[in-house]
Please model this.
Amino acid sequence: MKNFIVVVYDIKDDNTRNRVCNILKNYGTHVQLSVFECVLDASQYQRMKRSIERLIDVDEDLVRFYKLCESCRKKCELLGEGEFTEDSDIYIV
Model:
């Protein structure tokens, strides 16, 4: 089963932030400056987290993972231009 996951990050070092952003581009959609939406199964989610964990400084950086169930996802709303990330049949990992 796949989950809708919102990833939000605040990373001080520019190089590390860019590397984390590049990792996340392989797993989801870049929807705002430091925000990604991903639709992932459990193994994809764990791979993504491990890749990010190896890069960040846990004493200075912050990465939040919000896992939303289908019921919660349906309650999300948008104001302005954009759309929510949907599951894709093609994954680049």
